[in-house]
Amino acid sequence: MSFDTRKDPCKKNACRIQACLKENNYQESKCLDVLEQMRLCCVKWHRESLCCSGIDLQRSYLNEREDRPKIKEITEI
C-alpha cells in the first residue's frame, strides 16, 4: 500500500505549529499546547506520518509550561 502525502494524518498539526511559531516570534514556549497536540498525533500515527520524523514521542510539552506550579528546591536540611 503506498502512502499519499496529501493525506498525512498529522499535517494539520505541523501547519499549526508553523503558524503558532511565526505568530509568536519563534518562541517555542508560547506554542507548547500546539506542540503537545502534534506529539499526541505522532504517538498514534508515527508509522504513517512523514511529519512525525524527528518528533520525540516520549517528551511531554505540557511539563514545560511556564504557568504550571513550580516545585521549590529544598536547600535546607
User: Helicity level, as a percent range?
Assistant: 25-40%
Radius of gyration: 16 Å
| Tally of strands | 0
Tell the overall outline.
Answer: flat
Report the structural category: mainly alpha
The tally of helices reads 2
Note the run of SSEs as H and E. HH
Main pleated sheet: none
Mean pLDDT: 84
Regions with pLDDT < 50 over 5+ consecutive residues? none
Distance between the termini: 62 Å
Q: Bin the strand percentage.
A: under 5%
Summarize the structure.
The protein has 77 residues and is mostly helical. It is 35% helix and 0% strand.
Q: Can you characterise this structure?
A:
With 77 residues, this protein is mainly alpha-helical. The protein contains 2 helices and no strands. It is flat, with a radius of gyration of 16 Å. The mean pLDDT is 84. Belongs to the CMC4 family. It comes from Glossina fuscipes. Keywords: Disulfide bond, Mitochondrion. This is Cx9C motif-containing protein 4.
Features:
about 80 residues, flat, 2 helices, mainly alpha, mitochondrion, disulfide bond, Cys_alpha_HP_mot_SF, CMC4, about 35% helix, Cx9C motif-containing protein 4
Any chance you could write out the topology, listing elements then pairs?
Layout: H1 11-23, H2 32-45
Helix pairs in contact: 1-2
